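User: These chains co-purify. Model them together.
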Amino acid sequence: MANLNIVEALNLALKQEMKKDSKVLVLGEDVGVDGGVFRVTQGIIEEYGENRVIDTPLSELGIVGTSVGLAIYGFKPVAEIQFDGFIYPAFNQIINHVARMRYRSMGKYTCPLVIRAPYCGGIHALEHHSESMEALYAHIPGLKVVIPSNPYDAKGLLISAIRDPDPVLFLEPKRIYRAIKQEVPEKEYTVPIGKAKIVREGTDLTLIAWGAMVREVQAAADQVDLSCEVIDVRTLSPFDAETIIESVKKTGRAIIVHEAPRTCGFGAEISAQITEKMITQLKAPVLRVTGFDTIFPLYKLENDYLPNPERIIDAIKKVMMF
Amino acid sequence: MPPLKVSYLKNVPPIQKELKLSSVRFLQILDEQGNCNEKIKPKISESTLREWYKLMVLTRKTDEKLFVLQRQGRISTFAQVKGQEASQIGSVGALQKEDWIVQAFRETAAMLMRGVPPKNIMAYYGGDGRGSVYPEGTNMLPIAIPVGSQIPHAVGIAWGMKLKKEKNVCLVYFGDGATSEGDFHEAMNFAGVFQLPCIFVCQNNQWAISVPRARQTASASIAQKAVAYGFEGIQVDGNDVFAVYAATQQAVQKARVGKGPTLIECYTYRLADHTTSDDAKRYRDEKEVAAWIKKDPLVRFKKYLEKKKIWNTKYEEAIQKEIEGIVERNVQEYENMGVPPVEYLFNHMYKEMPPALKEQLAYIKQFERKKE
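Assistant: Joint model of the two components:
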């Protein structure tokens, strides 16, 4: 057991899976000699050499597109996209091939690769470095979307993603890459994909979040004199509706918190599922606390953009009025 | 900090005082009249020549049958291959069974040569995904519709071959239009940087729907684009099966010994419309088409075989009859396939069906299926 942050936990997961399975490859921009711009792949090239840890050309489409071929040919590529805002040249590959190779070959060819990308704001980053576009990916049939919120889950979910027979987009909340330390077992373990986690049990209302927003929600729950149930969604696709529905059946109130833009955000999907399945048991409307339908701003405005405990508490007060 | 074990510095090329641009070769062995330059013609057995001719006829007949099926509403939109048979048969001819092929959507000849039955092609264009399940050992990815997007997959497969220390190669087909896509350039770049056993076969058929080759690139040839990525490009007469075969054979040999990729530009022509939904008369001159009909790869090859006393009218009649039988049987088998069960809508999305899909499948099964 070691006290690790998310970067270190991911690094450990990668090293362990590379040791266990010689078909696992790491590829991307600066992932080798430099160890990745966030150091997630630090030291791996020294252990596994340049045939398994590959510094690629600066070419997102090329990284993902060639990973499709590698995956079809029996490898397990773990492709790193350096920043969320640079993934779009690869979007065609993700939506047209990564996510549908199994379907369009009727199971003959599969594409079990992992695309890792840091995402979300809050680190005073440059333009295009603070995107939260997870809903775009959750909307793609055939692609799994996983977002950890802490070091323990980061390691266990990444191992699950690498072993998964289907493609996984693994979004890493860069704002908390080093902000949270936790006891992380040295031994291998997995955290299941497709399963939300009840982080804190409660009876008055259900707070639902993922990634860096889980921490904000916890902070808000700490500050109110109510029994809040907090759910970390962890996997947007496939989505664990059951855990959320069961919770809201108990509390009758739900608030979804995400920093992605509000319109068509994943919160809208969760809200729809809650109302479709249990509207008569709701005590209050399902509310969302989200980023705005704006471009993610340059960093002097990012605190105005990002949901925080104050805004979450405001929503809590609203649902408790019913 | 300890010194790094990995250094790319050894690969940095010295400053070149003089940039030497390699000129791109053009290769033709068999001309329009069926005259063959025997000095440079690769050795090909008579049985192989017969097999190739039969495949050309099978491709032409399948293509014609698909067209009829489309016009009768028995399949939907599809892309005719007419005119490009030599580009595909010559290139597949240089491969071994273990090699892989990544196709675009006009590779009927390559598919048939690789052992994909005509009924699969009919099924795919007839709206049935089961058509994309090819027989075992075909080593060919399904038809890829988004232009150029399949090229990096071939590079990834070739990369896998290299990492597994195999001697196999991966061959990828695309058209002149695809060379304007980023996918082409990023894939070519990876193949060059990592010296991968990938054969890029551009079937330059002069038209990307209505846009002529001159609008795709200001380069004098497509083959020369390889130079920028650090490997060899060659332009061949794409209607000359021997030239295509010779160039591919050379590229394959090079790739098998670790000498990296090659770009082969097959200079050919799309004799038909882009697809059955297109009307090429809107944008291209009939005289141009007429001139290319004279260069028909099938006719040219037939003339050669006739000169070699391999072909005669009796042989042609026998082949035509045999192939018509094959095509008709395939039409029957295709039409007997019926509509896939509704489960096929959900199967193969993931290895394990997630709860939401199970729910959606149960929902749709409550309704009676609509017949067209």
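The mean pLDDT of chain A is 97.
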